[in-house]
Each structure stands twice: as structure tokens, then as C-alpha cells.
Amino acid sequence: MPVESGMRVNPCANLVLAALAIGHDAAAALGRAMDFPALTEEHRARLMQARDGGDHQEPAFFILLRSAAGFDGEVGDAPIRLAPDLDAMIERPADFRGDLCRVTGIIQQRTDLSGRYVGAVEWFLRDDAARPFIVYVARVDETRHPLSGFHDGQRVEIVARFYKRMDAAARDGRERSYAAFVGARPRIVLPAAGGPGSGAAMFWVVAIPAAVLLGVFLILVVYARRHREPGVRRRRFAGGAAAGDVAALDLDHPLSDDPAEALGELHERAHHVVDGAAPPESSHPGSS
Predict the structure, then answer these.
(1) Could you tell me the sign of the dihedral formed by the alpha carbons of 119, 122, 125, 131, in that order?
(2) What is the pLDDT of residues 156-191, one digit of tens each?
(3) Architecture label for domain 33-191
(4) What span, in angstroms and rounded, lies between the C-alpha atoms of 169 and 174?
């Protein structure tokens, strides 16, 4: 704190100011710990020595891995790229080296690292545009959030720093370039609309409720059939013919030419059929 010329300062006040300064520095350090750990100038200088196209076994990777290991899940006010341009990072890796990014993709392959880098797992992912990239995920808090709980096919989001361009042989044998990141604390997210895996997700979102509704409908149908009124069940009359059988209505006998009388005769025949009696002879003149 600046002091005016000629001003006397009490030694006790100096001790208080010093204590406040220490407390401020501790609080500031605690605040920084909640963010993704910042890189010092020395770290950035070493990071710029990363060998694009090579593997991860170099000091630059170890610096980023240690930085990611200190991440507690809160980005804070640190500047971050929410939609990193993977193509630009492959073409001009030095322009993006060390940048903090939020990358999202579907896990395609997971490989545990060995040796001095055993604290990380190499994930090969594809973003929503099916572009492949690599994330080295630091093992942080494996007791509560083990990386073994993640599986191929899951869509995840990871806060990570851009590392470099890596060249490797793809499954088709051709050498390809990938944007590589180093991050920590991945989390599972839902598939993007129209992105890889979204069709399957939407299918299950629709299919599961539909299957449940269909099952409930079938249960109700079976229940209704077993508990319906006895009078509603199909009756049978003498001779084994079912009620409503057209042949049992004795339509061979002519009906009256008068519509009202014909309707009455049909009603009477149907009544006798249901009760099991033989249908009555037609009273129409000229019937046998």
C-alpha cells in the first residue's frame, strides 16, 4: 500500500496490513482453484515446444495433464471456446495452443495410458458433425467419479485445453490428422438434434411410452372380457346356433308386405331365437 511522504505508520498497523494482504492472497488463490488452473508464462513457453504430428510423450503434455488434474468442474470467469473450430486447430495449431475449450462428442474408443502418464485415458471421439478428435482425460476423483463408468457410444462434454495436432493411422490404414485436447471431469449429455445417435435416442423416447400404453391397453381389454356382464356374453339357443345368426331368423318364410308388420315379425323371431324357442310361423297371408 503506498504511504505518503513524512507519514508515520504504527508497527502494529503494519502487522494488520500484512495479515490482510496474506488473507487476500489466500482468498485469491482459492478463487483461482475453482477455475480451470491457469498456465504460467513458463508453462506456456514449454507448451509452445509441443511437436505437432508426434505422440503425447513430451513435457508439454505433462504440463497440460497436471493443469487438468487440478480442475474441480467449475470454469469460472476463464475465457473458453464453446464451439472450437477443429479444422482450424489442425491447420494452425500454434494459434490455439493452450486455449480452454468445451468439446462435445460421442466416445468411439478408450485407451488407458501407461508409464508416467498412467493418470490419463485417451479418448477418441466424434463431434456432432462426425469429425474425429482426441481428448486425454485426466483421472480426477476416481473414487466418486471413475472414468471406468463411461462407455463407447455415450455423448459426453469435456472442458479441456487444446494440445496440438496429432497424426495417426486410421482404421482404414490411411494417416489422418486430429485435434488433440487435455481435459478432465467429463459429463454425459443428451444427443444433439439431428446429430449422431439422436435418431436412436428419439426412437427410444417414443417407443418406450408407446410400449407402456400398449401394455396397459391389452391389460384393460383382458380385464374387460373377464369381468363383463353375463347378459353381454354371447348366448346360444337350441341347436347350437349363435344369437344373431341370420339363418336362425327363418328368413325362408316370406314377411308381410307392410313394413311395420315385417319389422314386428323380425323382432319377434329374433326374440324367440335368443330365448331358445323356434321362430313362429309367419302370419303373412300366403305363407305356408
Answers:
(1) positive
(2) 999 999 999 999 888 788 899 999 999 999 999 987
(3) Beta Barrel (2.40)
(4) 5
